[in-house]
Amino acid sequence: MLQPLVSLYAFLTAPREEKGATATEYALIIAGIALVIFAAVSVFGEQLSSMWEDLGSQLNG
Questions:
Q1: For residue 25, which of 3, 21, 55, 56 is within the disulfide window of CB 3.0 to 4.6 Å?
Q2: Is 56 a member of any domain?
Q3: Is residue 10 part of a domain?
Q4: In the prediction, which pLDDT does 1 show?
Q5: pLDDT of residue 56
Q6: Buried (b) or exposed (e) across 19-45, using 16+ Cβ within 10 A?
Q7: Distance CA 50, CA 47 (A)
Q8: How confident is the model at residue 55 (pLDDT cuts 50, 70, 90)?
Q9: DSSP per-residue codes, the chain
């Protein structure tokens, strides 16, 4: 009667080895970075484009 509970307790309390990030964690990090880049380009894209065009025209004379 107690054997399944003892086995479950042993499984839940066993020490786990977590050595570094998994592919899922890396995918979440990459997705977050991509989202930030997309948001920045959406917000500042027009201003950055005009800045580079102004700089190019100043360099060309």
A1: 21
A2: yes
A3: no
A4: 66
A5: 92
A6: eeeeeeeeeeeeeeeeeeeeeeeeeee
A7: 5
A8: very high
A9: --HHHHHHHHHHHS-----S--HHHHHHHHHHHHHHHHHHHHHHHHHHHHHHHHHHHHHH-
With a cut of 90, say whether residue 27 has pLDDT above it. yes
Q: What is the residue whose two structure tokens read 């920045």?
A: 40
- In a domain? residue 35: yes
Name the residue with higher pLDDT: 15 or 53. Answer: 53
CA–CA separation, 21 and 39 (whole Å): 26
For residue 47, is pLDDT > 80?
yes
- Report d(CA 40, CA 48) in Å as an integer: 10
Q: Is residue 8 part of a domain?
A: no
What residue has token string 């964690």?
A: 25
- Total domains, the chain: 1
